[in-house]
Amino acid sequence: MMERADQLILNYVSKAADAAYGVLRPEQRLDFTRRLRARIEEERGGSQNARDVARVLARFGDPAALVEREARRLADASAPSPASPGAGTGAARSGTTAAFLRAVDDAVPPGVAHYRRAARTVTRTVVKDRPREAAALVVLVVAALLVPFDLPAVAIFRPPAIAWGVAAALVMSSETWTLRDRLIGAGAPMLGYTAGGVVVGGLRVGDRPGLEAFVREFFNTSGIMFMIGAGAGVCWLFLRLLDRG
Q: Are 231 and 196 in contact (CB under 8 A)?
């Protein structure tokens, strides 16, 4: 897996180097690929997972576009300014590393960039530092994923409800989330199941009268609404983890 992740980076940097051939001078091309590799490693954060590395590379975008951006940056930096003709080249060399790929970050709204960085940090540390919270989120996801499977009930409880009960207990026992956050996160799946099932099921009944038609539509839609509620609860709890650092 580590070799595959490293190979993804090597292939990406090689494509950038090929795209830079004939566009940048040899020393610029070498410096460009060196800094690109360093920036990728920084964003990678030590992950050896090929999927994580692929997502990092996807955020960098097309290597050819990076080369074009670097060429424009160098051209703008080397152009003499009206106040000090001929002084641009030195400034270009001194500011190369700091300015490299800054446009990639600037293209992302500050709020999104903040949560993206925080999400990477939390994802790497939550399992180690907050195992109870991590387990609660995982079990909530499992509860939602069990809905489409018609698994036999245990006593009178369906497996998704059992998984939700375990997740709710983990959430409510956590001291990381506030009581309000715990109630929202743990209660969202059942709120979706009951209230969502009633509302959506009632709308689906339409002009068909009778309790039997309503009950049928309720059970046809309540499972989906449970999944939506579980997803909302997981997102809420995860975002609250981000806010708490």
A: no
* pTM score, whole prediction: 0.49
Q: How many CA atoms lie within 13 A of 75 on its CB side?
A: 8
Q: Do 1 and 29 meet the contact criterion of CB atoms below 8 Å apart?
A: no
50 Cβ contact list (under 8 Å, min separation 6): 1, 4, 5, 8
- The residues near 74 (Cβ < 8 Å, ≥ 6 apart) are 24, 28, 92
Residue 41 contacts residue 50 (beta carbons within 8 Å): no
Which residue(s) pair with 96 in the sheet? none
Q: How many angstroms separate the most distant Cα atoms in the chain?
A: 85
pLDDT, one tens digit per residue, over 179-204 is 999 999 999 998 888 887 777 766 76
Give the contacts of 180 (CB within 8 A, at least 6 positions apart): none
